[in-house]
Design brief:
With 136 residues, this protein is mainly alpha-helical. Helices cover 79% and strands 0% of the residues. It has a single domain, classed as Up-down Bundle (Four Helix Bundle (Hemerythrin (Met), subunit A)), CATH 1.20.120. The longest helix is centred in the last third of the chain and has 33 residues. The protein binds fe (ii) ion.
Amino acid sequence: MAVKFEWNEIYELGIPEIDLQHKKLISISNELYDVATKGDVNLKITMSKILKNLTDYTVYHFTSEEEFMKKYGYQGAPMHKIAHDNFVAEVTQQIKNLSEGSQEDVLLFYDYIANWILAHIAKADKIWATFVKEKM
Ligand SMILES: [Fe+2]
């Protein structure tokens, strides 16, 4: 059984715009968890709306981060963008497979994305944010 993740201030990077986006990303992910655990009469429709929202918001958020890195001349930007692109590709693939998936599959997907996002924030994002904050 997947555990529901809650936003915690330890994930804050100190760049308010990005912190808000991270919070929102976890919040959209948690909508998925809620729908999968509560059960919903319109489960498939609700789920596809959330998944679309999640994908769109992830792409929007990654673009914001990449603009920050570019603006402040962060040298690790190309490598960081590869990590973003790989995640988007993986998520897109997994969502395709979910159309026939069970509730358990949705929760496994949730577990994957929430873990990825939080680990990414704590490691890769922390590095560029520390660099950028010194230049802001
Ligand atoms: Fe990132």
